[in-house]
Amino acid sequence: MEIWLNPSCSKCRTAQAELEAAGAEYVVRRYLEDPPTVAEIADVLERLGLEPWHVARTADATKLGLTLPAKDPAARDEWIELLAREPRLLQRPILTAADGTTVVGRDPESLARVIAAD
C-alpha cells in the first residue's frame, strides 16, 4: 500500500495510525516533497473515478491566490497540471492498496475499504 500524506495533516496522521493498527505494510510518500506527476495524478483520478476538481482543496487555492479553471471536462487537463504544479491543492491522504483500490482517506469507511483491499 502507498499513502500520499502531509505529516502536519491530522487526517493523514489518523490514516497512518489506522494502517499501523491494522498491521498493514505501506510506503509513505510525502507528496509535498515528492510531488506526483501529471501521469500519476491522472492514474489516481481514474482509479478513484473522480474528476480533478473533486480532489482539489479549492479553499486553499483562494488562500494561495490561484485562479482555478472551470469545473468542466474541457478543462480537465488544466486541472491535472495545476494539481501537479501545486500539490498542496490535493485532498489528503490518498491511499492505494496493492490491488489498485484507491481512496481519499478522510473518513473511517474509506480507510476500512482500502485496508481490507490490501
UniProtKB/TrEMBL annotation:
Organism: Nocardioides faecalis
Residue ranges the record marks as coiled coil: none
The protein, known as: Arsenate reductase
Annotated SUPFAM superfamilies: Thioredoxin-like
PANTHER family: ARSENATE REDUCTASE (PTHR30041)
Alphabetized InterPro entries for the sequence: Arsenate_reductase-like, Thioredoxin-like_sf
Family: Belongs to the ArsC family.
